[in-house]
Specification:
mainly alpha, 10 helices
C-alpha cells in the first residue's frame, strides 16, 4: 500500500475537485441550443434542470456523465496512489466540485448524481435504503430540499448499519456533509407545484 503523503492528499483533492467541476449540464444544454441551466429553471446544472430546459437526451447525458465524474476521479487517483484513504478525499472533492465548479463561477448542480455514482461503486446497498428514506421524508415534509438534506445526513448511519469499511464510511461522511451544505441553500425555497 502506497504511503499517504501531503502531496498525495493534495493530488487527490485537486484532481477530484477539477474533474468533479466538469460542467456537463451547461455543455449539454448549449449543444442543443437550450437556455443556460445556471440562469434558467432552478438555476442548477444537474440533470433535473437540464431535463426541464433541454429535454430527455441532454438530461440523460448530463446525469450519466455527472455520475461518472466522481468514479473517474477516484479511479485515476487510485492508479497513482494505491491507498484506500485516497477514496474519501478524492470522492468528496469530486462531489464538491460538481456543486461548486470552478469552471462555471461556482454555480453547479446539487451533487446527487456524482454522489450516486460513487455510492454505486463503493456501497450500492445504501442507495435503495437512502432512497426509501428520501421518499418517506418527502411525503411527510412535502419539501424536496429538506427531505434531501435529512436523507443525506442519514448516509453515514446507513453505512454503519451495513458495516462499511472505514474508508468507505469516511467517503459517506464526506459526501453527506457536502450534500447537506448544498441543500441548505434551498432550505426555505418555495417549489412550484
Amino acid at each position: 500500500m502506497t504511503a499517504l503523503t501531503v502531496w498525495n492528499i493534495v493530488l487527490a483533492i485537486v484532481a477530484g475537485y477539477l474533474i468533479g467541476s466538469f460542467p456537463t449540464g451547461v455543455i449539454a444544454a448549449r449543444a442543443v441550443n437550450a437556455p443556460d441551466p445556471r440562469t434558467s429553471g432552478s438555476g442548477h446544472t444537474g440533470g433535473s434542470n437540464v431535463l426541464r430546459l433541454a429535454g430527455w437526451p441532454a438530461a440523460i447525458i448530463t446525469a450519466v456523465v455527472d455520475a461518472g465524474k466522481g468514479v473517474l476521479a477516484v479511479w485515476l487517483v487510485l492508479q497513482v496512489v494505491g491507498n484506500p484513504w485516497i477514496v474519501p478525499l478524492t470522492g468528496t472533492a469530486a462531489v464538491a466540485g460538481h456543486c461548486w465548479p470552478v469552471y462555471t463561477r461556482y454555480r453547479g448542480g446539487m451533487g446527487v448524481s456524482t454522489a450516486a455514482g460513487l455510492a454505486l461503486w463503493f456501497f450500492p446497498l445504501a442507495i435503495p435504503i437512502v432512497g426509501v428514506f428520501y421518499y418517506l421524508l418527502l411525503r411527510m415534509l412535502r419539501h424536496q430540499a429538506r427531505a434531501a438534506m435529512i436523507a443525506a445526513a442519514l448516509i453515514p448511519l446507513v453505512l454503519i448499519v451495513l458495516r462499511a469499511g472505514l474508508p468507505e464510511l469516511a467517503l459517506g461522511v464526506g459526501m453527506s456533509l457536502v450534500l447537506v451544505a448544498r441543500y441548505a441553500g434551498d432550505f426555505n425555497r418555495e417549489y412550484e407545484d
